[in-house]
Amino acid sequence: MNRKIKEPQGLLLVVSGPSGAGKGTICNLMRKALPELAYSVSVTTRQPREGEVDGKDYFFKTVAQVKDMIFRGELLEYAQVYGNYYGTPKPYVQQLLNEGKDVLLEIDIQGALQIKKVFPDGVFIFVVPPSLEELRARIYKRGTDAEDVIEKRLRAATGELEYASEYDYIIVNDDAEKATKRVLTLMEAERYRAGRTYFLVDDMIRSGK
Ligand code: 5GP
Questions:
Q1: Which residues, in sequence order, are CB contacts of 173 under 8 Å at separation 6+?
Q2: 2: nearest Cα among 190, 195, 189, 168
Q3: Does the model's pTM come out above 0.70?
């Protein structure tokens, strides 16, 4: 970690995990527990699911619109997931981090690995289900996707688990409340990392006070 950080900075939290692992639920519980936590709303070309609101769950865009955003460099990262584009709008995230706010991104692995290159000080969290059987049961129970999409997601999940080692933390979501508590605890610890707090000591050394 870079020890030259001069100012307190917000945490950039990147949460990924296979579909059905429950990362969405955990992110929602985190936002409830930490109302000041800023959530980055992604753009996507997928169709809205029932109950999803444009600008709240996603910014729903056409492929041409997203390609335009990519071309103009307006996305911090983007990826194609299950045949649709998903991306993180850049200006919002950068502005919040500059203001010292914590920002939460719930994005897929391809996107997280792109973010890691730009923000190596980010906190990368991988949410896993307690087992693959449990994952299958959860996706079917959710019932929001067509059968072929579900099967696609299940096949992808096993491959995705291999990327867990690229992350800083692995959180087993056996129980959403408990898993969220674990994430909140690790966030607290992250704030005290020497790389993030060294500026305090640096001030003492420089000022002699
Ligand atoms: P869903 O269609 O179920 O909402 O999301 C499908 C996948 O896309 C999830 O793994 C979700 O984390 C990921 N995703 C959502 N937003 C973004 C984004 O902005 N960038 C990337 N790379 N993935 C995203």
A1: 17, 21, 22, 23, 25, 26, 127, 128, 129, 130, 179
A2: 195
A3: yes
Sort strands 38-39 and 169-172 into parallel, antiparallel or unpaired: unpaired
User: Could you count the other beta carbons within 10 Å of the beta carbon of residue 114?
Assistant: 18
Domain-by-domain residue ranges, the chain?
Answer: 8-37+102-194, 41-101
Residue with the smallest CA separation from ligand 1 atom 9 is 108
Does ligand 1 lie within 6 Å of residue 107's CB atom? yes
Q: Rounded CA gap, 119 and 65, in Å?
A: 26
pLDDT digits (tens, 9 = 90+) for 28-76: 999 999 999 999 999 999 999 999 999 999 999 999 999 999 999 999 9
Superfamily of domain 8-37+102-194 in the CATH hierarchy: P-loop containing nucleotide triphosphate hydrolases (3.40.50.300)
Is 160 a pocket residue for ligand 1 (Cβ < 6 Å)?
no
* Sign of the C-alpha dihedral computed for residues 56, 60, 61 and 66 taken in this order: positive
Give the neighbor-by-neighbor strand order of the sheet with 169-172: 38-39, 103-106, 12-16, 123-128, 169-172
pLDDT, tens digit, 9 for 90 and up, residues 120-176 = 999 999 999 999 899 988 888 877 778 888 888 888 898 999 999 999 999 999 999
Specify the CATH number of the domain 41-101: 3.30.63.10
CA of 81 to the centre of ligand 1 (A): 7
Among 192, 194, 182, residue whose Cα is nearest residue 126? 182
